[in-house]
Each structure stands twice: as C-alpha cells, then as structure tokens.
Design goal:
Helices cover 51% and strands 7% of the residues. It is an alpha/beta fold and 240 residues long. It has one domain. It has a 4-stranded parallel sheet, covered by helices on one side. The longest helix has 34 residues, at 2-35. The radius of gyration is 21 Å and the shape is globular.
C-alpha cells in the first residue's frame, strides 16, 4: 500500500508542476492582457479587434479602451457587469459594426476568457461555475484553446512567423483578403439571436445604471467596404 501511495505521489507532483508551467504560459500569452483593466475611469470602450488599434487611453486619459480581438456582445456584457460592480463607469462606447450580430461572432468569441469577469452567482450550477471559471483556467490541457496556445508556444515555425501588415499588401492581396473576411463574417442573412439578446441586455444595463451609451461604427478599408456592399446585421438599428 505504501509503495502504491508513493508511486501516486511521484506521478502527481511532476504532473502538477508541468501543469503549473503550462498555466504560466497560457496566462502570460493569452489571459493576462485580456484581464488587465484600469478601474479608475468613467468612460470605457468595448469592441472587438476593430477597436484594438486605438490606444488603451487617449492623451487626456478621458476614456479606457477595453476592446479585445474576437470579443462578442456576450463577452462585452460580462465586462460591463464587471465594470458596473467594480468601477464608477458613467459612459460606455460600444461597437455597432455591421458584422457584430453575425452568427460567426457567436462561435468565434472570447467566452473562455471573459468568464473571468462573470460573477459566481450568475452561473446556473456549481459544477458549471467550477468547470468554466476554474478547471479550464487552471488546467490548460483540459481547454482546447489552452492546448492550442501550448502547441504554438513550442512550435519554432509559429514563433518566428510574423503577420504581414495591411500596408504591405498588394492590391490583389487586399481584395482577396477582403473577400475571405466578408465571406465568413456574413455567412447568411440571419443574425444571431444570442448576440442580439446580449446587446439588448447591455442597453438595459446602461439604462438601469444611468450609464450613457454610445454606439460607434469604426472605419474600414475602402476595399472591404466595396466588397461588403450593403451587407449588415443591423446592430446600429438599436441606437437609432
């Protein structure tokens, strides 16, 4: 029995140390910047990758850019609830771009990261809270995105790969890139019911907490605008 317990301990301790190492990798590369937010502002901006080129704050420190690539309205709703509970937010600027109610954004999101901002009492059950908020976070090998990040970290090919900047694209490359983007951002004419409901809850949260809400459409490359045409899921309709 003692030998059995000894072998168990000798197996578990290295496993926990490896898991701790992997967690530190995932945290530093994937979670840390997403969870970092200054709480001493009164104006915040929430957007997906279209908002990330803007600075975190302007020169007068009058607003905080809380945007993140792939953020959906579900993620933004969680962030807003967190800001209401933890800051003195008075104004919210939120993206209402043509694609933000797309079904593609319903699946391509940051739900695994924004869970950090979700209150424990808002989960349906304890198991769901433990699994989504803690188990997937602290045991990255159980999380699909966690495993992907670890794979990329150990891939020399991916480490040395630099993303080509838009300014260096040829005209044909820009057009082809825009065609691909429009195709997956506007897969069909039906908008996401889940994201529509999240956006409506965001609007209600702002009304109930006396937060001034501003919808913002961010500028796009002319090639993208030409290819996209009149395609839109109408998020800006809620702000008319």
């Amino acid at each position: 029995m003692r030998l059995f317990l000894r072998n168990i301990v000798l197996f578990i301790i290295p496993l926990l140390l490896i898991n701790l190492w992997f967690y530190s990798i995932v945290y530093s590369l994937y979670l840390k910047n997403y969870e970092d937010v200054a709480l001493n502002y009164k104006t915040y901006m929430l957007a997906d990758s279209r908002g990330t080129p803007l600075l975190k704050t302007d020169s007068l420190n009058s607003f905080y850019n809380f945007s993140a690539g792939s953020d959906s309205y579900e993620d933004m709703e969680r962030k807003l609830n967190f800001l209401i509970a933890s800051s003195s937010i008075e104004r919210l600027i939120i993206t209402v771009d043509d694609h933000t109610l797309s079904k593609y954004r319903e699946t391509k999101n940051n739900n695994d990261r924004s869970i950090y901002f979700k209150k424990a009492n808002s989960f349906n059950n304890l198991y769901g809270m433990f699994k989504d908020k803690y188990l997937n976070r602290f045991f990255p090998l159980l999380s699909p995105k966690g495993r992907d990040i670890i794979k990329v970290y150990f891939s020399k090919k991916e480490k040395g790969k630099e993303r080509k900047k838009w300014i260096n694209f040829s005209e044909s490359e820009r057009i082809e890139s825009c065609k691909i983007r429009v195709a997956y951002q506007f897969p069909d004419e039906e908008k996401s019911k889940i994201l529509t409901q999240s956006l409506q809850r965001i609007i209600t949260l702002c009304m109930d907490n006396n937060i001034k809400l501003y919808g913002l459409k961010l500028p796009l490359a002319k090639e993208l605008l030409e290819i996209q045409g009149d395609k839109s899921y109408g998020a800006d309709f809620f702000f008319c």
